[in-house]
Design brief:
Structural class: mainly alpha
Shape: rod-shaped
Strand content: under 5%
Number of strands: 0
Order of helices and strands: HHH
Largest sheet: none
Oligomer: single chain
Number of helices: 3
Length: about 55
Amino acid sequence: MLEVKESDLSKITGGGFSLGVAIGVGALAVFIIGLIDGYTNPIKCGINQELNTSE
């Protein structure tokens, strides 16, 4: 059996949390949710309707 020394244990890195990856995953999730919402519930442009009601 191989024993790892205390000094070697402190040099081991891994399992770190990356803020950039978390932001990227969140942005991708928001984009996909918006894409699905826009596809299932389309809203037409109401600029002409707003102009006609002001006259």
